[in-house]
Amino acid sequence: MKIFFAFVFFVPALINAQDNHDHHDHHSHEGHLHEQMVDGEKLEVDVERFDKFVKGLKDKQIAVVSVKGMVCDFCAQGIEKTFKKDKTVAKIDVDLNKGKVFIAYQMNTKIDFEKIKKMIVSNGQNATKLQVLKL
Amino acid sequence: MGIKVLVFAMLFFTLNSEARPISYSGGSTLMAFSGNMYNSLYYHFSPTYRYSLGVESVEDKFFNQQYSYFRFTYLLSRRNTESSQGNLYFQSGLSSDGLDGHFYGLHGDWETRRWFIGFNYRDVKNSLKNYTDQFLQVGVAPYLGAYGDFHTWIMIKTKKNTLLGDWSTFPVLKFFKGNFLIEFGYNDQTEWDAHVMYRF
Fold first, then answer.
1. pLDDT tens digit string along A91-112?
2. CA of A79, closest CA in chain B: separation in Å?
3. B48 contacts in chain A (CB < 8 Å)
4. What is the nearest CA distance from A3 to chain B, expressed in angstroms?
């Protein structure tokens, strides 16, 4: 019985520890982009989500937009669908944890925050800040 | 017979108001409800996030009848913060049976990623008897999923219909992932009800 309990407690702990180790390795060796200063400020993003978003992207500008009122998947879906209609957008994702929208544009695209604000408002949310990162 | 009519009316106007009444701009929503008294299918389209137009078809199991509601919902106010969204809606419906059958009311909610509070109030006119219907609902998400994950809500709902008088309180479980949402509520008067929603 003791062996059973030891197994029940230790195996999940070991798996969890391995997961943490994997996460640590992931952030140690890949994509420090989220730690980069943009306009004197650090990006406040879900690190895993952001690293996954930028993985494989080259010669792109990443607009990180802070959005108010984005509390559920349905809000995120509306924003995603709106930006996917824009042909200048190469990729988009939503970080609900930090209230951010990631938008990848081609390098030659002029990023217009007023246009982004209008697109966000058309879905009922409010864009409050824009940070642009060049890859 | 009379009690069943009243219970049916209470269920219809309460449970159909639980779903989000307006989608994102250009979004469509298809909802189905199945319970011991009736089945309903409701489609609405939102030209903007401000309002939606829809049609609801009802299969009345008890009376063995079918009729429809033409529905209009308008967002009166929305308050966004970094961690929450609050909404107040006007809602209305006109029956295919004529002007005598209609309803209007208010629906409100406030939501963070962890907490949900909602209410509904409706004034219902029909050929049998006029009445009001209201509910309050509180929910908590036991974990916070990222966009695209499987989401779970545990809720408590309390409702009252002036035709019946008493408040009824019962648990509700809600699950959704992507465009798909399913919700179960249990009440000892009505047994299991199921509500399914697909947004596109």
1. 999 999 999 999 999 999 999 9
2. 8
3. 122
4. 31
What's the pLDDT tens digit per position in B40-76? 899 999 999 999 999 998 786 756 778 888 999 999 9
Which residue in the set A68, A94, A123 is minimally distant from B82, CB to CB? A68
Do A73 and B75 count as a contact with CB atoms less than 8 A apart? no
Collect all residues of chain A within an 8 Å Cβ-Cβ radius of residue B111: 71-72
Contacts of B44 in chain A (CB under 8 A): none
Q: Is pLDDT above 90 for A117?
A: yes
Domain of A115 in residue numbering reads as 33-134
- Residue B117 carries which side chain, given as an amino acid letter? I
Claim to verify: residue A46 and residue A107 sit in the same structural domain: yes
| Long-range interactions of B156-159: CB distance < 8 A, separation 24+ | B157/B185, B159/B10, B159/B14, B159/B133, B159/B134, B159/B135
CATH number of B2-199: 2.40.160.40
* Contact across the interface for B147 and A73, Cβ inside 8 Å: yes
| ipTM computed for the complex | 0.78
Q: How confident is the model at residue A41 (pLDDT cuts 50, 70, 90)?
A: confident
pLDDT tens-place string over residues B72-82: 999 999 999 99
| E strands in chain B | 27-34, 38-48, 51-60, 65-80, 85-95, 102-111, 115-125, 131-140, 151-161, 167-177, 180-187, 191-199
Average pLDDT, chain A: 78
* Nearest CB to B27; choose among A72, A78, A99: A78
